[in-house]
Amino acid sequence: MKISSTRLLRSALFASLAAGVILAAAAIGLAPPRPAPPSFERMSAAQAWADLESNRPVGHLIRLVAFDPQKEPWLAIDRLTRLGPPDQLYSFVASYEEMAGYTARQALEKNGLRLTEGQHVSAVIFPRRTELYPANARGLLQIIRAVEQEKGEAIGERFLDGANALSEAEAKDLQSTDIASYRVSDFKDKYPRYCELARRFNCGPASYPASRFIGSLYHDWHPLGFSQIEPARDPCTLPAAHYCAFVDWATTRAEFLPRFGSRAFFTKNLEIAKIPGRILIDFDQPDRQIIPYIGSRSE
Predict the structure, then answer these.
(1) Mean pLDDT, range 210-230, rounded to an integer
(2) Could you give the C-alpha distances from 221 to 80, 100, 156, 231, 262, in angstroms and in order?
(3) For residue 259, what are the CA distances in angstroms to 43, 66, 182, 220, 229?
(4) CA separation for the pair 198, 217 (Å, rounded)
């Protein structure tokens, strides 16, 4: 097993592959993942859903990238330079705590992505130390506004202009990044409008320039802020009223929990080499290799 001079972990078999137990090798300059304690259990979909409803804070984040090592060698973990493509300003990430203990394939699927034969998975695990935006309709609008403000006139056509322009109350609301401000129960009166704007941005006949600088919204994304495992249909084919339907969490939970994947978040497209406490892993057997335990935040 080769360990690069960069801060890299390569996953290695620790015990019987039939048992599916994986231990990642220690990275140069980084503390290795710790053996999972006897009480360590994978987070259930029900617990992750409860965290979605309450917008429970995240300790560590994970970015997963599936790639073909022959056709896409630049996506190998020792060649990645940023969390997302270089031209992105904000990229999608997930909660590491929701992925720990699952195979790399399962974790990828929980992020709404698919693994094809022969692909590897590059993983970046890191502590949350920068602004994090839950990727619900409200968070998406915050990111769109940030991108359009940062790019200025160079961006060309702005999404948040004309019929899509924010009201004074909406603009004021979107300034807040407090944890409670992302709880749908706290902006339920604004959710229909925010969701309709998100639908126009995501499902419009032509993409807006701001979309080039934001992680792609695929058909697995739900405007309440989560990814779906193999959604029944492309949400953009739904009537607008159905796309944004939300009565209460109990009703939504009954419909979506069976195919709930994970919470989704936006973070700045960070330069990987400058992320403190990062752990980098190449999963070359993602069907059997497991997202490792890295210790609790208090350890």
Answers:
(1) 91
(2) 25, 21, 26, 9, 10
(3) 15, 21, 22, 10, 5
(4) 10
The residue ranges of DSSP E strands in 44-201, in sequence order, are 60-67, 90-95, 120-127, 133-134
Residue 32 neighbours by CB under 8 Å, 6+ apart: 9, 24, 25, 26
What pairs with residue 10 in β-bridges? 282
On whether the CB atoms of residues 280 and 118 are closer than 8 A, the answer is: no
Q: What are phi and psi of 10, to 5 degrees?
A: -115, 130
Q: How many other C-beta atoms lie within 10 A of the C-beta of residue 2?
A: 7
Give the pLDDT confidence score for residue 34 in this predicted structure: 53
The pLDDT tens digits for 34-55 are: 555 555 689 999 999 999 999 9
* Average pLDDT, integer, range 101-107: 97
CA angle 155, 61, 186 (to 5 degrees): 70
Residues 121, 77: Cα–Cα separation, whole Å: 8
Q: Which amino acid is at 299?
A: E
Q: How many CA atoms lie within 13 A of 162 on its CB side?
A: 5
Pairing relation of β-strands 133-134 and 120-127?
unpaired
